[in-house]
Amino acid sequence: MRDKEINSGNRVRKKNGFDAVYEEYHKMVFRIAYHYTCNREEAEDISQVVFGRYYIFSETGRVTNVRSWLATTARNVAVNHVKHISYERLLWAKETMEDYLGYEEDPEEQFFGTLREKDEIECACRILAALKTKKRKWYNLAVYAYCNEMPRQEIADRMGMSLDAVMSTLTRIKDWIRKNYKDEFDHINT
């Protein structure tokens, strides 16, 4: 790290390492954080987090491009902070509206909702058991796609199939389920 000379009164002292980096890039990190938060206090807090991470990382690792590392870290911390704050605000707004409106789910609705969920789970278990006996490959595809919510390309790679083959097989599985379990689904959803 290059040394930086600081003129303080009659004496000249050298700043090096972390102090020099902080002095040179603090304004840049603060501007990036402020761009995302539009709040001086939050931007300052984010700046402190970024430089805290830099201090720890520079002790254990090697930063080749300090400016880029700080800018990227500032952006990531600020974006995560804004997401977290937005989520908290949504939760607060929901709780406030429920308090204001006096909304609580009706016990009867809760009871029938629980029954409906139980029926849906039992139906899904029967479908998966039927798929397992019909074609093991269909069962694996259905579990990967619908239970694990795995991306289609990852399923294709894992099963050694092309993406088109995965998509067409999933369509056949859906058609088979509709044909064999339509009445049961209609009963659950009424």
UniProtKB/TrEMBL annotation:
Keywords: DNA-binding, Sigma factor, Transcription, Transcription regulation
Matching Pfam families: Sigma70_r2 (PF04542)
InterPro entries: RNA_pol_sigma-70-like (IPR039425), RNA_pol_sigma-70_dom (IPR014284), RNA_pol_sigma70_r2 (IPR007627), RNA_pol_sigma_r2 (IPR013325), RNA_pol_sigma_r3/r4-like (IPR013324), WH-like_DNA-bd_sf (IPR036388)
Domain RNA polymerase sigma-70 region: 22-83
Family designation: Belongs to the sigma-70 factor family. ECF subfamily.
Name listed for the protein in its UniProt record: Sigma-70 family RNA polymerase sigma factor
Organism encoding this protein: Dorea ammoniilytica
